[in-house]
């Protein structure tokens, strides 16, 4: 447990620092939005491209890792959209709950995996991002097109928006470079390495700056269900899936870690743009991130 706390505490301290800086008005809101955009559009994609292009996936159980992460996500999404939808008349709230159940905060995931397992953990976490981010974005957009309140954008337009997502584009570019065997030229490698170094600290601080303690979105049930489901039920289901697939060691830990992460901050933007319940989404993000400071170290402490 001590080792896990040593790896996770600095990460959550960066989030707390971001929250305190925003709360104290150290940097105004437009500046924080610019930092988040810079990280999301440039720094984090640079980190992903370099890691995916240079990683050695030959020693990894690639397909079992992908299956262990995605099977629980798909099952969760199907259950939520079929069973829960029958008892909920509020479609936008359902879409925000769904995002709360399935979308991981990749900044936290990469930082924790690297802190716990070094380069192998970092490379495995990058593979997890490449495997899950396109899927969860697609599921979220499908749900928003079906249950969201914003019918102004066509499904085709939303799919094109996903295809242009910088994280997805970076994953595709990195994987293609890896598969081609060319890797990265030395100049590009050094350039992307410098950019990538800033991605995680700035990303984590921006996560904290985006947290909102005040708000009136959502009932008790719509808030509690995503927190319990995402931080406890989904990782248990993932652990069971890893057992069925015979996945163990670092790959299994990373798969469970990624399905135990709090929801991505970008979920709020998607909810606001595509007709979800943005206020509820903001509260789910804040509560999950705060709760994960407790649940993630405890869960990983039992595993590692």
Write out key terms for the chains shown.
304 residues, 13 helices
Polypeptide structure, described:
With about 300 residues, the protein is an all-alpha fold. It has helices spanning about 1-25, 30-55, 60-85, 90-100, 105-145, 155-165, 165-180, 185-195, 200-210, 220-245, 250-260, 265-275, 280-304. The protein has 13 helices and no strands. The relative contact order is 0.19.
Summarize the structure.
It contains 13 helices and no strands.
Q: What is the string of SSEs from the N terminus onward?
A: HHHHHHHHHHHHH
Shape: globular
Intertermini distance: 8 Å
Provide a count of the helices: 13
Question: Biggest sheet, in brief?
Answer: none
The total beta strand count reads 0
- Helicity, in percent? over 70%
Radius of gyration: 18 Å
Strand content: under 5%
Low-confidence spans:
none
Topology of this structure?
Elements: H1 2-23, H2 29-54, H3 62-87, H4 91-102, H5 106-147, H6 155-163, H7 166-180, H8 186-197, H9 199-209, H10 220-245, H11 249-258, H12 266-274, H13 278-303
Helix pairs in contact: 1-5, 1-9, 1-13, 2-5, 2-7, 2-8, 2-9, 3-4, 3-5, 3-10, 3-11, 4-5, 4-10, 4-13, 5-6, 5-7, 5-9, 5-11, 10-11, 10-13, 12-13
């Amino acid at each position: 447990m001590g080792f896990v706390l040593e790896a996770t505490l600095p990460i959550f301290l960066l989030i707390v620092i971001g929250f305190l800086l925003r709360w104290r008005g150290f940097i105004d809101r437009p500046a924080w939005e610019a930092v988040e955009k810079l990280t999301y559009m440039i720094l984090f994609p640079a980190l992903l491209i370099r890691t995916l292009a240079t990683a050695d996936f030959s020693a990894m159980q690639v397909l079992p890792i992908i299956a262990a992460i995605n099977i629980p996500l798909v099952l969760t999404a199907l259950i939520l959209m079929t069973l829960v939808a029958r008892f909920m008349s509020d479609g936008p709230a359902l879409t925000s709950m769904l995002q709360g159940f399935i979308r991981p905060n990749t900044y936290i995931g990469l930082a924790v995996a690297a802190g716990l397992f070094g380069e192998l953990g970092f490379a495995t976490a990058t593979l997890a991002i490449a495997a899950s981010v396109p899927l969860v974005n697609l599921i979220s957009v499908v749900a928003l097109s079906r249950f969201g309140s914003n019918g102004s954008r066509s499904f085709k337009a939303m799919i094109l928006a996903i295809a242009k997502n910088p994280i997805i584009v970076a994953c595709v570019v990195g994987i293609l470079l890896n598969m081609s065997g060319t890797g990265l030229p030395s100049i590009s490698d050094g350039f992307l390495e410098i950019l990538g170094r800033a991605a995680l600290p700035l990303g984590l601080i921006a996560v904290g700056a985006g947290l909102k303690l005040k708000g009136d979105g959502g009932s008790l049930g719509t808030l509690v269900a995503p927190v319990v489901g995402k931080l406890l039920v989904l990782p248990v289901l993932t652990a069971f899936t890893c057992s069925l697939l015979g996945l163990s060691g670092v790959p299994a830990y990373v798969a469970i870690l990624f399905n135990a992460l709090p929801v991505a901050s970008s979920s709020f933007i998607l909810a606001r743009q595509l007709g979800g319940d943005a206020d509820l989404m903001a509260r789910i993000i804040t509560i999950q991130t705060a709760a994960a400071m407790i649940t993630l170290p405890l869960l990983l402490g039992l595993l590692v």
